[in-house]
What does this fold into?
Amino acid sequence: MTTKPDISIIIPFYNEEDNVINVYNALKTVLEKEQYAYEIIAVDDGSRDDTWNRLKSLAESDETLRAFRLRRNFGQTPALAAGFDKARGQKIITMDGDGQNDPEDIPLLIKKLDEGYDLVSGWRKDRKDPFVSRRLPSILANKLIKRVTRVPINDLGCSLKIYRKEIIDHIQLYGELHRFLPVLAKWVGARIGETPVRHHPRKFGQSKYGISRTIRVLLDLITVKFLMSYSTSPIQIFGATGIWFIIFGFLSGIATVLMRLITVNGEPIRTMTRNPLLIIAGVSIVIGIQFIIMGLLGEINIRTYYESQKKPIYIIGESSDKHEM
Ligand code: UDP
Ligand code: MG
It folds into this structure.
């Protein structure tokens, strides 16, 4: 390919043999109509059906289609990460390879991005999936995530999204965190927008996820929330907890002594060895010290994390400096 594309469209495929052609055709129609300088990056996530052969034969006659096959089924997040690594466009679009997203929405996403966002997420307002197993858990999870992370997105699970490359370049994906991309993006300072998009029922193949996804999403939420606070300053999270434990321990200790010293009718209120507060005092102080030590270990951790990668603890968005080479 000679010209460098402006727009990269990344599509992960896992056992989607009957969707490949339709998704490709629908996408191609829109991209050609809008006359974008584009590339399509198809990532076959170790499919066991005919997906790869179909992608390969499409790619043979279309140089805008770049197809890659992962050695095994790594999962949607690694498949997307592979796509991000290959993408050369300044604007990166992701969508599903199952025909549920509508490529007709792409111009909409681009328009919205150009209004001054770094990431625009699709919102499946009229989602075509089963209610109890998919839509209901999704609504609840989205509400919770919105509250915990304060990222104003109503439908994190929608794959149809557009990103500026410089944002993606700052994000490292792990596990199944592709669903939290807007949260991770917000963390690196992205301006985030949302726009309603169409959604179609799955015509061929099966969904790769079931209701068990809900628990995994919750666990991921804990990770993301924790990392967001932890990587700023571990001693602040652990240390504060530790200090409260120690204060509580000391107060219990003082109470134990007072209860021994103050007498009623010549008898102490409680002797120290018979007072459960004594144990509570000891345990609390030990726990408190442990927390502070964990905070300190965390501090060492983040120094290793940043310094081993020579990663700054800030990200510059723009500059009007003439002195730097
Ligand atoms: N996918 C993938 N690897 C996986 C699971 C899914 O590449 O291990 C792809 C799948 O082919 C589809 C997209 O990710 O293009 C979304 O998957 P699916 O449609 O099953 O999710 P749902 O829309 O039901 O949430
Ligand atoms: Mg789907």
The mean pLDDT is 95.
